[in-house]
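Homework help board

Subject: predicted structure for assignment chain

Our instructor gave us this sequence and asked us to write out the predicted structure in token form, then describe one feature. I got the tokens but I'm not sure how to describe them. Can anyone check?
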Amino acid sequence: MNSETEYTFETKTGTCTISPSRLVLTRQGKVGKLSQLMWGKSVYRGLAIYSIVGAIALGYGIWQLIDKSFVSGAFFCLIGAYLFWNVIASRNNSAVNLIERSAVQSVDVEPPRPPYTRGYFIIHFVHKGKKRRRLVGLPGGLSGASDEYSKALAAMKDAGWL
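My token output:
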């Protein structure tokens, strides 16, 4: 473990700078600005949007079922239920940009499976007394996913996070 070196690698929305003592995420470019607009400093704005869209889809689906249009009613009810499920599953996610190493409990690694999924890290940590998760998504398959994943994995290991 190198105690003085900082490593920087690309993420889906910008860059991640990691050192043995902390992890700093920055949002850059068009995707980063869109992410900042959508999520801000908290995931609650995005979860509220998902909840509203889920309620609309569920309401429309129920209305379609009452109207005896069973296929579209079932379709929209499933979409609404899926969105609500994701809101419940994501309520402990966090959008913090700075995570101190002392707060981290564990780091999960998910490798990319091109062209289907991008690689990402799930950082489990404690923030203001609550257990939180921060997802660090890496670039997708069309933008050098395997190379960036290897670079990020080596940085995490060298900095002592894995």
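Reply (TA_rk): Your tokens look well-formed. For the description, you could write something like this. The first helix runs from residue 29 to 39. That's the kind of observation they're looking for.
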